[in-house]
Amino acid sequence: MSEDTQQKAAWGGGGKAIFRTKSVCPNPTLTKVSVRDFEILIDEPPNNHGNDEGAQPLEYMLASLAGCTNVIINKIGKEHNITLLDMEIDVVGVCDTRGIFGLEQIAVPFPEVRLTIRGTTRNSEQDMELLREQLAWRCPVKVIIRESGSVIKENWDITYV
Predict the structure, then answer these.
(1) Which residues, 6+ apart, have CB-to-CB distance to 71 below 8 Å?
(2) What is the residue-level pLDDT of the chain in tens, covering all 161 positions?
(3) Are the C-beta atoms of 13 and 4 separated by less than 8 Å?
(4) What residue segments make up the domains of the chain, in order of their start?
(5) CATH 3.40.50.2300, applies to 57-160
(6) What residues contact residue 150 under an 8 Å CB cut-off, 6+ apart?
(7) Distance between CA atoms of residues 124 and 127, nearest Å
């Protein structure tokens, strides 16, 4: 069995999955990352000596939280017949930049991350509580951020119809 076949089999069965990226760095701020058949450009804005060809690495980290939150909410929803319509997810990270600039070693670069989830549902408040509880431990990006020491301040703005 090839490694790719093993990876696909494990993905749906609760085993381990392997994720790979490959990158080239044509200049000090630009990183071109290959992920499967996709290219991600990571760069810095001009005020940080970049050419603004892509989002900054930390912006991608926060975007990953939004994307993972979306996927996991919908996965949980499918399992429990919970639907969140017109969902919007906002993520704001408060970064302590002293470590980036070499001023001080910072154990928790993002002391606070604000996650706002908005949407409409026909489900009950109890269903939404189940969704919130399971999201807390099922979203790998959220777990990584929380376990790094960041406080995740969550705001669920749900309209019940």
Answers:
(1) none
(2) 445 544 454 556 678 899 999 999 999 999 999 999 999 999 999 999 999 999 999 999 999 999 999 999 999 999 999 999 999 999 999 999 999 999 999 999 999 999 999 999 999 999 999 999 999 999 999 999 999 999 999 999 999 99
(3) no
(4) 3-48, 57-160
(5) no
(6) 108, 110, 111, 112, 113
(7) 5
